[in-house]
Design brief:
The protein is α/β, with parallel strands linked by helices. It is built from 8 helices and 15 strands. The chain has one domain: Metallo-beta-lactamase, Chain A (4-Layer Sandwich), CATH 3.60.15. It starts with a helix and ends with a strand. Bound molecules: zinc ion (ZN).
Length: about 280
């Protein structure tokens, strides 16, 4: 009898250990930031815990849906928060398809007067589907557990009609424990960058390179200020020569790890809840 109890005890301990490791592997990392390979456009999916997703920009077409399917948990059909940096097609067009497939919680998008058939269609579709749309301006914050999304720009009260929606770019900083990432949308971080943006640029671990790494996407002053460890260029086949040699050279000189989605595919930064993080491709 004693032997039986001893065996039962050992069996229980072993079962607990196996269950612990099974649960740990199925839960995966607590925080995952995936810079999706969506071609010539931007889309970054951030997963918090098991079932909360934040999407920053939505890519240029329905390729984003395939990329999302690769990243999303198979039984999760909701994306809780979507941020739209600005209404150019390579950042918003994917959302038209996403709305057909996923339950979308809140879309953060500033109401810019901007003439474009795709933007008009999106605004109409969001209204028709009763999706919650909120503004997100300099100083706005979204907190989900230990993850924060902070807005640096636009810092104006009135958004006036514009031919260049880049003027009202939503610039975001995402933080989780040791990870911090700057999402400047397409706002070129060079030249006459308004002091209000420049003075708020603190060092980050990751910078998403603006505007597919065009000339002037980022300059050495800003890189010094940000001192990022990782730079990620979302880019696809294009006729503009993006990313340009000049920008690539500058990044390779100043940043330890430089990735581009056309060559490296989707880049994932994963972190456990203890703050340790790594890169997965
Ligand atoms: Zn743009």
């Amino acid at each position: 009898m004693k032997r039986f109890i001893k065996l039962l005890f050992i069996f229980s301990i072993l079962s607990c250990v196996v269950i612990f490791f099974l649960l740990k592997s199925s839960i995966g990392p607590y925080f995952k930031m995936s810079f999706l390979n969506v071609g010539q456009g931007d889309a970054t999916l951030i997963q918090v815990g098991l079932y909360t997703q934040i999407l920053i920009d939505t890519g240029p077409n329905n390729i984003t849906l395939s990329r999302l399917a690769e990243e999303m948990p198979f039984n999760d059909h909701s994306i809780e928060y979507i941020f739209i940096s600005h209404p150019h097609a390579d950042h918003i067009q994917g959302l038209l398809d996403i709305l057909d497939v996923y339950n979308v919680g809140t879309v953060f998008m500033n109401p810019i007067v901007y003439e474009s058939p795709i933007y008009a269609k999106l605004v109409e579709k969001l209204a028709y589907m009763n999706i919650i749309v909120r503004q997100f301006r300099a100083g706005s914050d979204l907190m989900i557990g230990d993850v924060s999304v902070h807005c640096l720009w636009p810092n104006v009260d009135e958004l006036t009609p514009t031919d260049n929606p880049h003027d009202y770019m939503m610039i975001l900083v995402v933080r989780y424990k040791k990870i911090s990432a700057l999402f400047p949308g397409d706002y070129e971080l060079s030249g006459n960058l308004p002091e209000l943006i420049r003075s708020h640029l603190d060092p980050v671990v990751i910078v998403k390179v603006p505007h597919q790494g065009s000339d002037g996407a980022i300059d050495s002053d800003i890189l010094m200020r940000l001192s990022p460890d990782i730079a990620i260029i979302p880019v696809g086949p294009n006729k503009y020569g993006h990313p340009t040699r000049e920008t690539l050279d500058l990044l390779h000189r100043s940043v330890r790890l430089v990735f581009r989605t056309d060559k490296d595919g989707t880049i994932r930064i994963v972190s456990q809840s203890d703050g340790s993080y790594g890169i997965m491709r």
